[in-house]
Write a structure and sequence with these properties.
Layout (H helix, E strand, L loop, with lengths): L2 E5 L2 E4 L4 E8 L7 E7 L6 E6 L6 E3 L7 E6 L4 E6 L8 E8 L13 E2 L3 E6 L1
Parallel strand pairs: 2-11
Antiparallel strand pairs: 1-3, 3-8, 4-5, 4-9, 5-6, 7-8, 9-10, 9-11
């Protein structure tokens, strides 16, 4: 069993920055791939970014490429999402998720554990 707790969300103006954190417990953190997803009201949960077990491979949705950076610290059991140049369309509930399989996945269906989410609101 893995427990994930997100933090760092909030209200920010257009062009601003936020750093989300996701603390994991319950299993060896370095054994799973970590992803960030987001869901706006009335919409599906969308892939944002993923990082492999070692942190050496990262992949992003086109909508955030060049603005967001995913990273992980296996010694601290934490994954981060640094968000900059925020836009109103980035407003959503952001979730981190853990995937115990070998591959790097972008579909939420591939992930085994989820946090409760942290709200990000970008005001114009």
């Amino acid at each position: 069993q893995v427990q994930l707790v997100e933090s760092g969300g909030g209200l920010v103006q257009v062009g601003g920055s936020l750093r989300l954190s996701c603390a994991a417990s319950g299993r060896t953190f370095s054994s799973y791939v970590m992803g960030w997803f987001r869901q706006a009201p009335g919409k599906e949960r969308d892939f944002v970014a993923v990082v492999n077990r070692s942190g050496g491979f990262r992949y992003y949705a086109d909508s955030v490429k060049g603005r967001f950076i995913i990273s992980r610290d296996n010694a601290k059991n934490t994954v981060y999402l640094q968000m900059s140049s925020l836009k109103p369309e980035d407003t959503a509930l952001y979730y981190c998720a853990a995937d115990l399989s070998v591959g790097v996945a972008t579909s939420p269906m591939e992930y085994d554990y989820w946090g409760q989410g942290t709200q990000v609101t970008v005001s114009s």
